[in-house]
Write a structure and sequence with these properties.
Pnp Oxidase, Chain A, mainly beta, 11% helix
Length: 205
């Protein structure tokens, strides 16, 4: 018979580490490039990130606190999402550093830029897929009682999508070929998608 560790989040989890982001895991990484109103490039990873709609393609990320990425997106209405593959993991981690707003994380992580076609923020040139996005909604999250949190949900519509053609086979994008990494729980856990982890399951009907 299963023994459950149950808790109400408002009363604490009674564990050495909050299990929430280890349970809802692994999560794709929102590696977001923006540019400030003054033209300073910014690049930062967010572990609360996902795709929310096919047509038009809508993606979003949530920021704990009003960070440079959110401020830049509010000011300009634009951002780029860059896929993080295993070989870019260390560079991505470098861009997670808490640095001043006038620091260019592309330079900090020694990453080359690629010019975008529809928005001002640059793309990570070595990333195997990038979505150029226009802001659709910037939402401050709230509790069930309506108390505002210092947590900001950014949603954007992808207006241009770039895919490394080596990731395509007969016109089909090969997820594992790009070797994307995903965020786990704890302070340092990540996962990698590999070909041997693939299995297929078709929906009924």
């Amino acid at each position: 018979m299963t023994e459950w560790h149950s808790y109400e989040p408002t009363n604490g989890h009674r564990l050495p580490h909050d299990p929430l982001n280890a349970i809802v895991a692994p999560r794709p990484i929102g590696w977001v490039s923006t540019v400030s109103a003054d033209g300073v490039a910014n690049l930062a990873p967010y572990s609360f990130f996902n795709l929310f709609n096919y047509s038009p393609p809508l993606i979003g990320f949530s920021s704990m606190g009003w960070k440079d990425s959110v401020a830049n997106i509010e000011a300009t209405g634009e951002f780029v999402w860059n896929l993080v593959s295993r070989d870019l993991g260390e560079a991505m981690n470098t861009t997670a550093a808490n640095v001043a707003a006038d620091v260019d994380e592309f330079a900090l992580a020694k990453l080359d830029m690629a010019a975008s076609t529809k928005v001002k923020p640059a793309r990570v040139a070595a990333s195997r897929a990038q979505f150029e996005c226009k802001l659709t909604q910037l939402i401050r999250l709230e509790t069930k009682e309506g108390r505002e949190l210092d947590q900001w949900l950014v949603l954007g519509e992808a207006v241009a999508i770039h895919i490394d053609s080596a990731m395509l086979e007969d016109g089909v994008y090969q997820t594992a070929r790009a070797q994307p990494i995903l965020r786990g729980g704890g302070p340092a856990d990540y996962f990698e998608i590999t070909e041997d982890a693939l299995f297929k399951m078709r929906r009924p009907g």
